[in-house]
Amino acid sequence: RMEGQGCYTLPTGTEYRGALRDGMFDGEGELLFPNGGRYRAVWHRGVPTQGKYTFADGLEYKDKKWHYCDGYDRRFYTEICSGLKPAGISQLTNLDPPRKIPEGCYDCGDGFYNPETRVIVDYKLRFLRNA
User: Does residue 51 share a domain with residue 17?
Assistant: First the structure.
């Protein structure tokens, strides 16, 4: 079984770095997600007892007094930090500048979906899966 300090990559591409005991996350460690987010926590037998999630853009999630994209203010974090775009220029995601979407395709979060081929490719145009 895994013991001590180490790294473990899950099949989803998420990586754990930190303390391991008896094959489980135990002690201080963090999960690094493929989208750039990270979750730092103190673990006990594989279960986080306290932790903090940080989005890829640096925004930290707070359980109390969360003011990001709520019912009253629906701006993206980059819009809160950098201000709104001029009239006629839409910001459809938190990315600034936005990704270039190939003609006729749709951004589906982890890549682009092409309805003609029914294939999803990642942002570097490598095959991910059939739809």
Answer: yes
Instruction: Give dist(CA 95, CA 98) in Å, integer.
Output: 5
Rounded to 10 degrees, the C-alpha dihedral 70/75/81/82 comes to -170
Q: Write down the pTM of the prediction.
A: 0.53
CA distance 37 to 76: 16
User: Per residue in 48-75, pLDDT tens?
Assistant: 998 889 988 888 887 676 666 666 667 7
103 plus 78 within the same structural domain: no
Q: Edge-to-edge, what's the strand order for the sheet holding 127-130? A: 106-107, 112-114, 119-121, 127-130
Q: In 3D, which of 31, 33, 34 has the Cα closest to residue 19?
A: 31
Domain residues for the domain of 126 are 91-130
